[in-house]
Amino acid sequence: MDNPQTVAAQIRMRLPSLTPLEGKVAADILARKDITADTPLREVAEKSDVSEAMVVKVAKKLGFAGFREFRRGLIDYYHSGSAALHSEISADDTSGEIVQKVFRTAMQALEETFAILDLDAFNRAADFLHQAQQRDFYGFGGSAQIARDVSHKFLRIGLRSSVFDDAHMMMMSAALLGPKDAVIAFSHSGESAILIDAVELARKNGARVIAVTNYHDSSLARAVDVVLCSTAENSALLGENATARIAQLNLLDALFVATAQRDRVAADANLRRTMNSVVQKRRK
């Protein structure tokens, strides 16, 4: 992991592949800010109440060669500007402190999501959306709001899409898709069984499927053609998924622009037409 900004994000993305105990160990270590180059393996193991072998095992499952590389990665990350952006909100914070902490946490999510972005996957996703005959977007709750925002932007440039936030409607959509169609499935956890069922049916029928999720090793990520990951540090009050949505909105804005660039002449022409239709309805 050459970029220090990616260390925490890569760890978070791999959490679903860990057992509950391994996940606890990873979370314990990630939460520590006092690890130095002299911190021994023994101390880290004792603080998590596990064996030294368990810490080494967790480090390897998280993508490091061993504990020393894991320790070095964490030290580099904690000295990066991205890590310094996050601060927990406390009950005694003033309004000014709350605003600063919320904004800085969102900035951290944006910086780390940008750092881990797979540009090859991003370009494949833009190609799928540009070439698609039908574009269906799946998501529940807050994810559905992101889907609607993206669908609105695509309509502005003449690319029609449909948003489904109901389980039965998703399945009916998936049943009617084919090789010329594309799906974007939004899920923070990547473990929504209903969403995965719809995605698997869509792929069975030949549609290309893009996942927007927080976990690269999630069940959803393993079931699609392309994975675009967002990342955010968990916050007791805001929650991890709330902050990750900020990153997802920006990620999808970029994907919208990249898709429009595939045929910029048509996109600009359709944008003028749709914007003019709205402007004419405004009161003078």
TrEMBL record:
Gene3D superfamilies: Glucose-6-phosphate isomerase like protein, domain 1, Winged helix-like DNA-binding domain superfamily/Winged helix DNA-binding domain. Pfam families: HTH_6, SIS. CDD domains: SIS_RpiR. Residues 125-265 form the SIS domain. Keywords: DNA-binding, Transcription, Transcription regulation. GO terms for biological process: carbohydrate derivative metabolic process. It comes from the Bacteria. Signal peptide: none annotated. GO terms for molecular function: carbohydrate derivative binding; DNA binding; DNA-binding transcription factor activity. Residues 5-81 form the HTH rpiR-type domain. NCBIfam families: PRK11337.1. PANTHER family: GLUCOKINASE, HTH-TYPE TRANSCRIPTIONAL REGULATOR HEXR-RELATED. This is HTH-type transcriptional regulator RpiR. It comes from Aquimixticola soesokkakensis. The lineage of its organism: Bacteria, Pseudomonadati, Pseudomonadota, Alphaproteobacteria, Rhodobacterales.
